Amino acid sequence: MLVLGIETSCDETAVAVIGNGQKILSNVVFSQWVHKRYWGVVPELASREHIKTILPILKTALDEAKVTLKEIEGIAVTCGPGLVGSLLIGLSLAKGLAYSLKIPFIGINHLEGHIFANFLEYPDLSPPLICLIVSGGHSTLVYVKDKGDYRILGRTRDDAPGEAFDKVARVLDLEYPGGPSIDKLSQSCKSSKIRFPRAYLEEGSFDFSFSGLKTAVAIYVSKLSIKEKEEQKPCIAKGFQEAIVDVLVEKFFKAALELKVKKIALAGGVANNSYLRQKLSLESSKEGLELYVPSPILCTDNAAMIAAAGDFHLQRKESSSLNLNAFPHLSLDQKV
Ligand code: KG4
Ligand code: ZN
User: Fold this and answer.
1) Are 41 and 47 in contact (CB under 8 A)?
2) Which of 60, 77, 139, 335 is most exposed by smallest CB count within 10 Å?
């Protein structure tokens, strides 16, 4: 089955074609650069960029896959969570195509898409597993009992980790998006003397909180002279990164232990963090856990992961009606 995936939930305009739920024939992602100067995604600008770029990106995805629209057999589109204006653009395209081509389409939860990046990368991977989705908008710890059967164990109570990376990067005068900048800079710190607080929350909680950490870094930096700030930047970045990663890894492992699951999978843009990958691969083997991490292009927002989740649901004869709406606050365990 040839499935077309469409993803426009935030600031990436993405279209992909996949075959048989596993083979990526094309995976085109346009990351909107217009938000750079605002240090965050401006919703209205994001919608306008999606409108401008979605059709050329659709054409590129079809050309790269060497298929025509007539050969597409199903369409999968992100219907939430995300920015409502942005979601509506992908959704309108999907509905228009499905109606004119007389093929089924299905609305996909963006977080389910992130989970499916793992099934796309590792076709033999099968649940049960624990998935940690860490991105600019989410940090969600999920028990994947089976494909399509999810239980949320914990989520962020305030900032998502990517959001904290982006805000701390601004405090340190680095480039947006902050995650890759902090990741790179922290590698030039040779000591680990600067330590920031870790918020583990109540005993037994799998929720996360990163806004206090972000404030702790801002207060620390505000007390430094310009020269001190310049000298200490790499180690501030490293101390901050370690504080985030320590909490993520500890709760991830604890969840696997508590639910007696041997497979753990990472997803979302922050999954590209080199220290997080390093620490997880080192400690998962010690703990006897199998770690799965998709390649970088499948971790950040893309449409191949949406098409993969769509293929799964379409194969089960599930589809959406043309009345389907966009859901900005859609939770993973909510049906649409
Ligand atoms: O999944 P994604 O592309 O979009 C959302 O759904 O949010 O994630 C983007 C986030 C940004 O906040 C970016 O700073 C972060 O992922 N990110 C990283 C790294 N690469 C991207 N954070 C830490 N380390 C990285 N190497
Ligand atoms: Zn995402």
Assistant:
1) no
2) 335
